[in-house]
Design brief:
- This protein is mostly helical.
- The protein contains 3 helices and no strands.
- α1 (3-22) packs antiparallel against α3.
- The radius of gyration is 25 Å and the shape is elongated.
Length: 99
């Protein structure tokens, strides 16, 4: 399962647990929800540190891949790229198909 999905489901689950813990208390439902949002955010900061770090690492890696691909495409469009080395000397690609 993706770290982002794990973290998101964990945050939703923690919010639900806090809401259920506040349910028997006699107060306005909107106040209960606001308290649950605040407490679940504070608890998730400490309890879900590992999942948050995994998610941040995954996002950083995908951003770096996108940046590298973007740089590669820009250099290819500018004509700065290397010649196609996947072709054999007779003009056919390595996969055996003809041009």
């Amino acid at each position: 399962m993706s770290p982002a999905v794990k973290y998101t489901l964990g945050r939703i689950g923690l919010f639900a647990v806090v809401v259920l813990a506040l349910w028997p208390i006699d107060m306005n439902i909107f106040l209960k929800l606001m308290i649950a949002v605040i407490f679940s955010a504070a608890l998730s900061f400490f309890l879900m540190r590992g999942w948050r770090d995994e998610m941040a690492q995954q996002i950083a890696e995908s951003a770096e891949r996108r940046r590298a691909e973007k740089d590669r495409l820009r250099s290819a469009l500018a004509g700065d790229d290397e010649p196609d080395t996947a072709n054999r000397s007779d003009g056919t690609p390595d996969d055996g198909t003809r041009r």
